[in-house]
Amino acid sequence: MRRIFHTAFVAGAIAGLLSFAIQAGTLLPMIDRAELLEHPAAIGAGGHLGYALLADLLAGVGFALVLAGSFALAERHGAAVDFRRGLLWGAAGFLAFALAPALGLPPALPGSEAGNLLARQAWWLGTALATAGGLAALVFARRGLWRIAGVAAILAPHLVGAPQAPSAGLASAFALLSLAGSALFWLVLGGCGGFFFHRLGADTDRYAARSPAPR
Question: How many CB atoms lie within 10 A of CB 25?
Answer without folding.
Answer: 11
